[in-house]
Predict the 3D structure of the following.
Amino acid sequence: MLGLGCERGTPAAEVLALAVEALRAAGIGAAELVAIASIDSRRQEAAILAVASHFAVPVVFFDAPRLEEETPRLKNPSEIVFARVGCHGVAESAALAALGVDAELLLGKIKSAHATAAIAGIGLQKA
C-alpha cells in the first residue's frame, strides 16, 4: 500500500517521481502495489489520481479523524501536519489505515518539495 500526501496543486510528475522512489526504496515492484491511500481532502487532487492511473490501481481515502487513530504507529508524526489537516500524518497513516491492524510501515515517510509518500505492508520484510 502506497500512502501519499501532497499540497494542493502539486505537479503530477513530482508525486509520481516520489511514488517511484518510495517503491524502489521499499523494494516493492509496481506489480505488487494494490492501491494508493490518502486523506479525503485530496479526493480530487489531480496528482494523486494521476499516480493511481499510472499504476492502474484504485485510491482509497480516509478522513482526518480516522488517520489520527494511526498516530501511535507513525514513524514521523508531525505537529505541522496536524495543524494543517487535523491528523499527525497523511502518507504513513493512510497506508496503515488501508491495510488494517496487521499492517506495518515498510518505508516511513519520504518527502519531495510538496509531497510525502510511505509504504505499508502485511507480512513483508522491511526495507
